[in-house]
Write a structure and sequence with these properties.
The chain is of the alpha+beta class. Among the domains are: 2-208, no CATH class; 315-420, no CATH class; 586-653 and 694-883 and 893-912, no CATH class. The strands form 13 sheets. It has a 4-stranded antiparallel beta sheet. A hairpin with an 8-residue loop joins strand 11 and strand 12 (499-504). Helix 6 packs antiparallel against helix 7. The chain is globular and about 100 Å long. It starts with a strand and ends in a 7-residue tail after the last helix.
């Protein structure tokens, strides 16, 4: 017995008498496939090839193929031939060879093309006539339209043996004109008692006939599996008008026949109901809002909702909520597509209605939801109690209404109203624990508000915010970027994936724009036999991956599989390439210190591209690289791009004059404060760190940063945007994953957590936990190199990225730190900067981290407009939380840690100013 698969049909072939194999479709079936005729096999059927007979799986009716030769009625013969693919499978090769030789027309022109015998099966008379005179399939392609033959074959095949029903059905498809009412009624009259499927199919086809605009069916394009088919579908529906052109174009571009089980074709046939009619689209004026151009690629899908709500916490929104309540008090909630009659909301759950109005106007959002829809259970509850059932339309129920308004009930993707019906758990005693200096916006319309993290020379008049000149991304845009910022915006004329990088000039406009190489956003990644679209993130083993223009970019972390042996687990270090966890540091050409030469080689560096020792303990000015009239200043940095060199020094001349309005406090190695770095250089001093001079950092006290570098003081580490791991020089490398052992860190005395009861995170490669939120970001090195090229070959550094990310943290009680991990992920920490942070401040930092994580994973224009943040592909987040006070108290500190804790607490104020 030979078992073969034929679509959804189970086939068992008896091969004892006939030597058959599962082969491709022979000439007769090839013609059907080539011309687009759908073959609809039956259900699970047993075929006895030895007897050359077929049994239809549903009705078990017997059909003897030998009877074909004795049938005199042409219509009866045509009917049986049209139904034959449903009765007999394609693998019955001898049967189909026999049928091919006995079809009408074959004997008359035996030397003609193989499809001649099928001409009588065509639905339209023009197609039959052209087919009889043809010599190849190309001769009939213009006359035999696929939409007629394909859909006609599909719908009319449901008529079974009822010839009259089939004839009236085929009449629907014989002309290019819209089916008439009499034709549709005739099909209903003669087919209603035979096949409900046929009526449904014909009804769906007539509804989809282009009486309405093809653009109304754009939502069906989203259901195509292939990205190129989605793009082609949208283009065809916008440029073609007739149903025939559209169907032919879709079949050619998508490379698939319109089978009813495929979601896109099912949608076009009308099986899936269209959404509510969208608002009329208007072309976006050029250069009106470059920030929103980033949304255009998302607007091509039905997932983009132009009325999606965004956060709006201001007086105007509060007034809007009050106005909503007044309107709803009239007894009817008026929606764009329905009216909802309600009882007197001033008496029926008034607080809940206020919460609904506030959620719609103030627009709270969750980092995973992107919207402000109230939860379905709340919607059903409030309409069940307060809906005026007497005035509901027929069939209108709270459940059906809420299925349209709020179909989601996941608390992470909708807004639960109970949050706004109970008093805050924080109580009224909280006074300025968390500030938002830029909300409401205190700056003029052409200035950008930023949290003041630099500090002021005059502390008495120091404001918590800065108003810096900015550029709007278009005349009608409200999106501002600071002066000198480099911004990536989509090109106005190029296809999707084409961008240009511009700078914000002194004029307040984007200028000096340079085009970047276009990215093929239609090219998918094939991973494990699965198709991943551009921009999709996924996991492979323990790796985080993202598809970018056909390339799967994955993290380089080491993985343990489920079938790893005990010996493998004992020797697993978690370091790249399974390198040992010995700390013999080397400094690579990208400015990053790696724990060993093994790790550096694993990450792609040749032996001549690294030297032994820590990067920050080397002297980049030792070789006198600068000219005589210039000073060499060490400028340690870790480069993310490798298109150009990564110099660790800077050659500067003594500035003749400095801008006295520029305030950027800098502390020199003598402990003296300067108003700016320019004035420090003008005085001929050496920079110790940026920010106000701190008493705790006057004397060198070495600390080890999370990046594996040794710093002379805590202030120096903070100035480099690196958080401290432990006291003393670096001499160990920590675990890179949760499953890796941390034996190398067992001798490291870790500082106490900043707040008792904190559930901390341990950054990869570090030894000690920290009470902060952590992002591990996957990024595109090719994009970083492109940004370096368009910026006069200046390298893109970790410090550059962190400085831009700081602009997106709106709470001054939290700040951004980070480093490049040894497996080349970007690790970002958002940590509280207070000496003793409160639980609310810890939570605020977690929310800021969730916000940035969401902006990265959703490729929000708020973030991807900024260079180099637009090279981010994916982010994974870990947040700290605070245990209840009823838990066990902290263990006593080891004596040696008391000094480090005091040092960190004394220096914590530097975080506000560095």
């Amino acid at each position: 017995m030979l078992h073969c698969n034929y679509g959804c049909t189970c086939i068992t072939v008896d091969t004892e008498e006939t030597d058959l194999k599962c082969l491709s479709v022979l000439s007769f079936l090839r013609l059907f496939v080539d011309t687009g005729v759908a073959l609809t096999p039956g259900e699970c059927t047993v075929y006895d090839v030895g007897a050359i007979s077929c049994f239809f799986g549903v009705s078990r009716r017997h059909m003897n193929i030998e009877h074909l030769a004795t049938i005199k009625s042409e219509s009866r013969l045509k009917h049986l031939l049209q139904r034959l693919p449903s009765y007999c499978p394609e693998l019955m090769n001898e049967l189909w060879m026999c049928i091919n030789s006995t079809l009408p027309g074959v004997s008359r022109k035996s030397d003609g093309w193989v499809g001649l015998g099928c001409c009588e099966l065509a639905i339209s008379s023009e197609c039959r006539r052209e087919c009889r005179q043809a010599s190849s399939k190309n001769d009939i392609s213009k006359v035999c339209k696929k939409v007629t033959e394909v859909m006609g074959s599909l719908c009319c095949s449901y008529s079974g043996r009822h010839t009259t029903c089939r004839e009236y059905c085929q009449a629907i498809f014989r002309t290019d004109s819209t089916p008439t009412v009499s034709q549709i009624n005739a099909v209903k009259e003669y087919c209603q008692s035979h096949s409900a499927q046929l009526l449904s199919c014909v009804d769906n086809f007539t509804k989809s006939y282009p009486i309405r605009s093809p653009i109304d069916s754009l939502y069906c394009c989203d259901r195509a599996e292939a990205t190129h088919c989605q793009e082609a579908c949208r283009r065809i529906l916008r440029t073609m008008s007739t149903e025939h052109e559209i169907m032919e174009g879709l079949i050619d571009e998508c490379g698939s026949q319109p089978l009813p089980q495929e979601p896109m074709w099912q949608c076009f046939l009308g099986s899936a109901h269209p959404p509510s009619p969208p608002e009329e689209e208007t072309p976006h004026p050029a250069k009106m809002d470059c920030a929103k151009l980033h949304c255009c690629s998302k607007a091509n899908t039905s997932l983009c909702r132009p009325t999606e709500l965004f956060r709006s916490c201001n007086v105007q929104s509060d007034q809007g909520a009050m106005n909503d309540i007044k309107l709803w008090s009239n007894g009817t909630i008026k929606m764009p597509f329905m009216n909802i009659p309600v009882l007197d909301i001033r008496k029926c759950l008034p607080d809940m209605w206020k919460a609904v109005a506030c959620s719609l106007q103030i627009k709270p959002c969750h980092s995973k939801s992107r919207g402000s829809v109230i939860c379905k259970s709340d919607c059903v509850d409030i309409l069940t109690q307060c809906g005026d059932m007497k005035r509901f339309h027929e069939g209108q129920t709270p459940e059906r209404i809420c299925e349209l308004l709020s179909p989601i009930d996941d608390p992470e993707r909708c807004i639960p109203l109970h949050r706004y019906l109970t008093p805050s758990s924080l109580g009224d005693s909280i006074v300025e624990e968390v500030l938002h200096p830029c909300n409401p916006n205190p700056c003029p319309s052409n200035h950008l508000c930023q949290v003041n993290r630099k500090g002021c020379l005059d502390e008495l008049s120091c404001q918590p915010h800065l108003c810096v000149p900015g550029c709007k991304l278009g005349e009608a845009s409200e999106f501002l970027v600071q002066q000198d910022a480099r911004i990536q915006v989509p090109t106005r004329t190029g296809p999707s994936g084409c961008h240009e990088v511009c700078s914000c000039g002194p004029s307040g406009r984007l200028e000096n724009c340079l085009e970047m190489p276009c990215v093929d956003t239609n090219k998918p990644c094939i991973v494990g036999g699965q198709r991943k679209s551009h921009g999709t993130s996924f996991r492979m083993d323990c790796h985080t991956c993202s598809c970018f223009a056909g390339d799967a970019i994955c993290s380089a972390r080491e993985c343990l599989s489920y079938d790893s042996s005990d010996q493998d687990r004992r020797h697993f270090t978690g370091l790249p390439c399974g390198c040992p966890d010995r700390f013999v540091p080397v400094c690579a050409s990208n400015g990053r210190t790696y724990p060993s030469a093994c790790v550096a080689r694993c990450m792609g560096f040749k032996d001549h591209q690294f030297v032994f020792g820590l990067c920050r303990l080397s002297n980049p000015c030792a070789g006198k690289p600068c000219q005589r009239n210039q000073r060499c200043i060490p400028k340690y940095r870790v480069c993310l791009s490798d298109w150009s060199d990564c110099p660790q020094h800077e050659c500067v001349g003594r500035p003749a004059a400095c801008d006295k309005n520029s305030v950027e406090p800098a502390c020199d190695t003598d402990g003296l404060l300067h108003a700016s770095l320019c004035q420090l250089q003008q005085a001929g001093k050496n920079l110790a760190y940026m920010g106000h001079c701190q008493d705790a950092c006057r004397k060198p006290r070495q600390v080890c940063g999370h990046n594996g570098e040794t710093y002379n003081t805590v202030c120096e580490a903070f100035s480099d945007r690196v958080a401290v791991d432990y006291e003393g020089p670096c001499h160990a490398v920590g675990a890179m994953s949760d499953v890796a052992p941390d034996s190398a860190c067992s001798v490291i005395p870790c500082p106490a957590l900043s707040i008792p009861g904190c559930q901390p995170v341990t950054p990869p490669g570090a030894c000690c936990p920290i009470c902060a939120s952590m992002l591990q970001i996957l990024w595109n090195k090719e994009q970083m190199n492109t940004f370096s090229k368009v910026h006069t070959n200046q390298p893109v550094t970790v410090h550059d990225v962190l400085q831009v990310l700081r602009l997106h943290v709106s709470v001054p009680q939290c700040d951004v730190f980070g480093y490049l991990s040894i497996d080349h992920q970007l690790v970002v920490l958002i940590a509280p900067v207070e000496q003793q942070p409160t639980p609310l401040q810890i939570e605020a930092c977690s929310k800021e981290a969730e916000k940035i994580d969401s902006l990265i994973n959703y490729a929000s224009p708020t973030l991807v407009s900024h260079v180099p943040l637009s090279a981010f592909l994916n982010s994974e987040i870990q947040t700290s939380s605070i245990h209840s006070s009823g838990g066990p108290g902290p263990s006593p500190l080891p004596p040696g840690l008391c000094f480090l804790l005091g040092l960190l607490m004394a220096a914590a104020s530097v975080l506000q100013q560095v």
